[in-house]
Amino acid sequence: MSKRGKRGFLRNRWVIAIIGWIGYLYVRLIYLLNYKKHSGIKRLDPDKPYIVVFWHEYILLSAFCWRRLRKNKKDRRVFAMISEHNDGEYIARIVKHLGIGATRGSSTRGGVKALLAAIGELKKGNDAAFTPDGPRGPRRSIAEGVIMAAKKSGAEIVPICFKASRSYRLKSWDRFVIPKPFGTITLCAGKPFGLEGLDNDESKQRIRQALEAIEI
């Protein structure tokens, strides 16, 4: 199959739907077939919305694990900011099946629309999830969208990641992590913090330090 034909195949709505279901079933299966642990903050204010941040390499399980940590009220949801690029279609389908909403856009396409939608959800009392280095890197960089969301909404940021005792790391730009079954998955969550009084460079450094700290 030519590159053009392959791209067309991967954009087919039936292919997207099937891959979305396969991804959803894989996430649920991996979650069920691993022992779960927790490290860091165990309790959050149930009445406050939060901005949850994690590196793009941890996107497969992080938002799903966040819902388990958060123990959300029935009227609160978590919305993930997902790229409008083709690969974002697969992720959007997977998170939809997992009960996670999506605001579509990124730093390179539809970003303002998605950012405004995320801020709107935070002001409604919902949580918003960001991968500050997504959708295409550079790996572990900090885009300004999460900073703007925090400052405009006043919501605190919670850094999270998961550690898998058994996993694959893809040779992609983000070194994407795919957990294997029959191991241990540890959800790591840092202390919530705000960005009041910090400029953009200081805010990026604060977020990076918080994300790096929970991986130690």
Task: Please report the distance between the alpha carbons of the first and last residues.
Answer: 44 Å
Any low-confidence stretches, pLDDT <50, length ≥5?
A: none
Structural class estimated from helices and strands: alpha/beta
Number of strands: 9
Biggest sheet overview: 7 strands, mixed
**Count, helices:** 7
Estimate percent helicity.
Answer: 40-55%
Spell out the helices and strands N to C. Answer: HHEEHEHEHEHEEEEH
Shape: globular
Quick rundown:
With 216 residues, the chain is of the alpha/beta class. Helix content is 41%, strand content 20%. It has helices at residues 3-11, 13-32, 59-70, 86-97, 111-123, 145-153, 200-213, and strands at residues 35-40, 50-53, 78-82, 101-104, 127-130, 156-164, 167-169, 177-179, 184-189.
Molecular structure report:
By secondary structure, the protein is α/β, with parallel strands linked by helices. The protein has one domain (3-213). 41% of the residues lie in helices and 20% in strands. It contains seven helices and nine strands. The chain has helices at 3-11, 13-32, 59-70, 86-97, 111-123, 145-153, 200-213, and strands at residues 35-40, 50-53, 78-82, 101-104, 127-130, 156-164, 167-169, 177-179, 184-189. It has a seven-stranded mixed sheet with strand order 1-9-6-2-5-3-4, sandwiched between helices. Strand 7 (167-169) and strand 8 (177-179) form a beta hairpin. The radius of gyration is 17 Å and the shape is globular. It starts with a helix and ends with a helix.
